[in-house]
Amino acid sequence: MVWRCFLNLSVRYFFSNGKMRRRWHNWKNGAKKFWDFMRTHDSVSILIFNTSRQCFVVVKQFRPAVYMCEVERQHPELFQNQDKESFSRLEDPLPAAVGVTYELCAGIVDKPHLSLEEIACEEILEECGYRVPVTNLRKISSYRSGVGVTGSRQTLFYAEVTDQMRTSEGGGQPEEGELIEVVEIPLEDSMKFAYDETFPKTMGVIFSFTWFQNNIAPQLPNK
Fold first, then answer.
1. Are 119 and 109 in contact (CB under 8 A)?
2. What residues pair up with 56 in beta bridges, in sequence order?
3. What domains appear along the chain, each with residue ranges and CATH number?
4. Most exposed residue of 36, 87, 100, 151, measured as fewest CB within 10 angstroms of its CB?
5. ∠ CA 145-114-181 to the nearest 5 degrees?
């Protein structure tokens, strides 16, 4: 496919369902195109490995978007009137557990005065309770996420912690609507967990566990 230059590129703002969205207009390869997108914050995520316990530290939390996708999958009739003013009600709601996912510790980049590493350390402390020096972080990579809608950038770090570095239970900030459970995944079970679809998880978990096996595990002392 040959990608020619964009002609008459413009971006328009509009409201949809009460949210500000953006619409890209342009001519591409001789055809008029448009694409709706939203601007969101970039983010950081951290693969945390507890060397004292030989386990990964991840978080488990309820995601409304995941829950609603599961509701739509099981009850598509509820969304047939989505363009109308009336609202459908599910008489027998699905359990909240269908909206719970396992994820890496992560957070948005919304503090211009802090570096990505400093934001990552703050998230580790808030969500998982470990106080990690910036110098303990190792950058794995940066990549695009939400490429069809947001195009934001996420930077993934690796951090090793010990039991002595844990200063609180973590759990996030309830005043910001966070309700986070800290979960430990034993190293010996990590790859089985990564590919077990009965545990809903983000791609970041699978990728980072695989990265660890390729880059860190070979250097660990044999037991």
1. yes
2. 49, 185
3. 7-37 (no CATH), 43-81+93-218 (3.90.79.10)
4. 87
5. 60
Structure confidence by residue, pLDDT tens digits, 150-178: 778 999 999 999 999 999 988 777 666 66
Cα–Cα distances in angstroms (integers) from residue 6 to residues 22, 23, 124, 158, 214, in the given order: 17, 15, 42, 39, 41
pTM, entire model: 0.82
Would you say 95 and 62 are in contact if contact means Cβ atoms under 8 Å apart?
Answer: no
CA distances from 154 to 40, 117, 138, 157 (A): 11, 12, 15, 10
Q: Could you write out the three-class secondary structure of 160-188?
A: EECHHHECCCCCCCHHHCCCEEEEEEEHH
E strands, 53-95, are 55-62
Q: What tokens appear for 113 in the block?
A: 């005065």
Q: Which two tokens stand for residue 133?
A: 């020096």
